[in-house]
Design goal:
By secondary structure, the protein is α/β, with parallel strands linked by helices. The protein has 15 helices and 17 strands. Strands 4-3-2-5-1-6-7-8 form an eight-stranded mixed beta sheet, with helices on both faces. The protein has a six-stranded mixed beta sheet with strand order 12-13-17-14-15-16. It starts with 5 loop residues before the first helix and ends in a 5-residue tail after the last helix. It holds the Pfam family Mur_ligase_M.
Amino acid sequence: MTTLSAAREIEHLMTLHPKGFDLSLDRVTRLLERLGNPQERLPPVIHIAGTNGKGSCAAFSRALLEAAGHLVHVHTSPHLVNWHERYRLAAEDGGKLVDDDVFAEAIARAAEVNAGQKITVFEILTAVTFILFSEHPAEAAIIEVGLGGRFDATNVIKRPAVSVIMPISMDHEAYLGDRVELIAAEKAGIMKRGCPVVIGAQESETALQVLIETAERLDCPTVVYGQDFLAFEENGRMVYQDEDGLMDLPSPRLPGRHQFANAAAAIAAVKAAGFEISHRATEKAMTHVAWPGRMQKLPQGKLVELAPKGAEIWLDGGHNPGAGIVIAEALAEQEEKNPRPLILISGMINTKDQTGYFSAFKGLARHVYTVPVTSSDAGVPNDELALRAAEAGLSAEPVSSVASALMLLRDSWDGPAPRILIGGSLYFAGAVLDENGTPPT
């Protein structure tokens, strides 16, 4: 008898169904009905949408709930190295990625019930989320939207404990619209009538207005960053404030000032969802939170060994202009604390605004090595990406791989040990973690 393998099951699905997204809820709703509507048997759901910060909010929410002793399921997308990363099942020791045999069986079950009908792989795998989360005990489920909100396959949850909208900026314009208010309207589609809503820090007043108006129209109890809650830095610590008062907390373990706002949104979301989190649990969450591939420091690994001696290496999968800004700000903070020359090693895909991303690093990065993203069919050729970096005013050159960039830098470097940012795509970040021998666990 052949043993089921999740990788083989997904590979088989890829041969049967189209890649990408097909924004509609009809197919996933039909499949879920045939599966007995497992999405209606979930623990309280924290449903998170937004352009940037979704994953960080999910990570903080998980850390908060687990620090308070709750069992938590977490669904995120995309994965970095293995599909299993998308499904973290609750456990007493802080949760674990789904076991391969459990994962494979759920995929096979969903595929069998679908019976070859037209559907996308993402929709089948979203149904798998609901199968897994409904059949394993937990006290909360954190579910990150894949794309947009209104027609995302996760948006079949009728009564979320809270809907969270993180910062919105231009991204996925081909699917969501070419103006920020159109994108905001799509993200706001996860709000459900009468259910609590948390609106994270928004750079666009237009987007914020769309979100508030939608929440008001649906009679949703709503808290808004900067109005009803906020966080700020004071004496190297984080102060969180809402109607219940102040909490003096350690700075979040995830680097960058933007993580203060992300942490604040998670605290507000967990409270809005009905969970009581003590000051002590919140302190623990700030110091224990982890989110691979997002301003992740790489202290060791196969690739790290190729870098100039003493180099400080960071990895981040941020891939649009909004992400570029917050990453550049985080690196500027590092520069203030510990000055080092900044070098970028970048790979991106062709659905992103590459020049807009690189523009955030003008005046900060000394040089950019551009590499191809071989893990995606949409990878931008390295020579073309170098031109986009040059358009943003950066010194850039194409090389064949991250390893080549690091060795070239090592052999030519003459000066203080550099700070290196590897990033520009989550596909790229995942490939780097895999090659470095440090995949998420």
